């Protein structure tokens, strides 16, 4: 039976019972089927499976976890049934702590104080004082009639226009927000317009932000006729690697194999027309006493943090498949444009150092932070704020929420999690990172327009009030 998001499958003395999430307690045992989200933090006590915790960790490649390994609520169980002992519920879970961090930061983060608001606050009182002094001048000093004195005082009140000051900023922001929405950009606050044009540094998450967040085959070594052997075994897998391989060269079809055995965490064994097939990692191949004939290429791609899978037929390696989280087409262009604007880009990711280093070099980012935990991302943004006047951050996952809230200006991409969208100052409604550039450009134009509006509002009052007197 499929569970709703607020239910858990409780196991009590080998009897399963579906209860609400709130009823689960620390020490309870819960069952999580393949394809389901893990509802609470805990430790695996039975079974093993590939776990996708990219929503929390930011790592693009699923982890193979077994008995004794910790799992995080909101991660996805990809392949096998698990029994998990709950070790955190409610506000003690990793996900809840991330959300709490976001909420606490939103409370202590200072609001940008508008200079215009301060001026407007005293403008009306100033006009009242000027009008009163004008009346006193005409009535008691110039000895004018009461009607004339009142007429001049009223003229001062009528000709003055505090609303021009009050409307200068919101009018520009309203128009700019409309233009932004036409460009598939959603602003969630006027402060963005005043800060975005001052950005000196911008941090980027990797998975799902600079990259597409999905594994794809990037390199293939060997005769393509053997790709059918690989697909014949991987077609039975729910793992992202299997899905990526079967999406590659779709014209090459899988065979109907005679034998199939999934060796959890290592690879797959099978047979086709009497030929013994193995598909898996280098360790899996070498465990079966098979020599890697692509040693040089293997070292190159693993040093770049890419995933490498081998296929052997009858104890002989026949192909090597390289997979990676594909870079978005516009990522390199975006980074180059930002550098042209003197905005320094940073990569902040939960991925390993090899992956981070390779991607940073590929897109042109000189400084990067790897293997970063969710709450550490916010600390890195704080560190950057000590070096740069205004720091922005672009992210998509739950793990990015603390950094999005800490940043002076934050962007969430179109496929972002709900919490990332709720936290960000700007939501990009299209999956195109170049919208960041459009948003920054629009911010500069809006700021210029606000200044122009204020200048005209002040000039109007400075010229007409003396004339009224």
Q: What would the keywords be for this entry?
A:
Rossmann fold, six-stranded antiparallel sheet, Calcium-transporting ATPase, cytoplasmic transduction domain A, 17 helices, elongated, alpha+beta, seven-stranded mixed sheet
Describe this structure in words.
- Helix 3 (115-141) runs antiparallel to helix 5.
- The chain has helices at 54-57, 94-108, 115-141, 146-159, 162-182, 191-195, 206-210, 227-234, 240-247, 282-287, 295-303, 331-340, 353-363, 374-387, 401-406, 418-423, 435-468; strands at residues 7-12, 15-20, 29-32, 41-46, 49-52, 63-65, 70-71, 76-77, 82-88, 185-187, 201-204, 211-222, 259-263, 267-272, 275-280, 307-313, 316-327, 344-348, 367-369, 391-395, 409-412, 426-428.
- Strand 1 and strand 2 form a beta hairpin.
- Strands 10-22-21-20-11-18-19 form a seven-stranded mixed beta sheet, with helices on both faces.
- The protein folds into four domains: 7-92, Calcium-transporting ATPase, cytoplasmic transduction domain A, CATH 2.70.150.10; 115-169 and 449-468, no CATH class; 180-211 and 328-443, Rossmann fold (3-Layer(aba) Sandwich), CATH 3.40.50.1000; 215-326, Calcium-transporting ATPase, cytoplasmic domain N, CATH 3.40.1110.10.
- The protein is an alpha+beta fold and 469 residues long.
- The longest helix is centred in the C-terminal third of the chain and has 34 residues, at 435-468.
- The protein is elongated.
- The model is unreliable at 105-113 (pLDDT under 50).
- The protein is 43% helix and 25% strand.
